[in-house]
Amino acid sequence: MHQKDTDPVTIARALAWATSELQQGESPAVDSRVLLCAVLECQRTYLFTWPDKSLTSSQYSHFKNLIARRREGHPVAYLTGTREFWSLTLKVNESTLIPRPETELLVETALALALPDTASVCDLGTGTGAIALALKTEKPAWHLTGVDRISEALDLAAANAQLNGQLTVNWLLSHWFDAMAPANQFDLIVTNPPYVESDSEYLQQGDVRFEPASALTAGVDGLEDIRDIIQRAPDFLTSGGWLLIEHGYTQHESIKELFEERGFSGCQGIDDLNGLPRITLAQWRKS
Ligand code: GLN
Questions:
Q1: I need a labelling partner for 85 at 20 to 30 A (CA). Which of 99, 128, 162, 269 fits?
Q2: Which helix (H) or strand (E) holds 46?
Q3: Least reliable range by pLDDT among 4-8, 14-18, 200-204, 220-224
Q4: Which ligand 1 atom is the nearest neighbour of the CA of 192?
Q5: Using a 6 Å CB cutoff, which residues line ligand 1?
Q6: Same fold across 11-72 and 97-284
Q7: Which of 201, 204, 216 has most ligand 1 atoms within 8 Å of CB, for mutation?
Q8: 97-284 belongs to which CATH class?
Q9: Which of 123, 196, 200 has most ligand 1 atoms within 8 Å of its beta carbon, as the pocket-test mutant?
Q10: pLDDT tens readout for residues 133-166
Q11: Domains of the chain: which residue ranges?
């Protein structure tokens, strides 16, 4: 039987329409379901259980608007305003990078270090607060500081701390270490800084086009911020303190050199699931 335009739009029909609208994208069916759940404020199972339920006209126009923006390329996380990371649900907006699943490896690596029970830990360039908050949920006795130079990002991070069980993190507005008091001594500094080469073709495709360049790029070799961080971190590390950096898959050797030139020891790379080094860490020993 043919569907008439005047028939109420059911969940099944809305999804079929949206999936065909997003055909050129990477994940038309999943994106359609996630966006419809955001409109209906429901879980994904609801869509499968009630395919014949009708949308109200305002729900349908909201959904059509989201699908149109997704077709233009806007990331799903900016359209729904949330993203899952570790065990957290985080609010996101255009002021920050959308947390990536691969950054969970940074959290895992940090948790595997032998640190004091009440370690002082700093997340440099915290954005949504993802790393700081994931560490705080796992290690409630750690003292966390989350640093960002964008005040909207810190507002978002503070809101995310409240949303995920009122986690206590000290938020600091600072470009890397600029506004940090020298008295700060951390057992661990962890960072997912910008590290993409500024002329990388990768920036012209997909979701990254909508993310802030300040969170993505760092000079022609992508190492500008990492160089700065490695240079200045020793002033803010305890003896035996660690600096842990996420980076691109071709950057490990250069970062190892930077660590060694600066006098760090115990430098090691950590591979991701594809066997590529995406994290480099090293330890500072005060002489
Ligand atoms: N890993 C990110 C990406 O692939 C880049 C994030 C960053 O520069 N820290 O887009």
A1: 269
A2: helix 44-49
A3: 4-8
A4: 9
A5: 97, 100, 192-196, 208, 216
A6: no
A7: 216
A8: alpha beta
A9: 196
A10: 999 999 999 999 999 999 999 999 999 999 999 9
A11: 11-72, 97-284
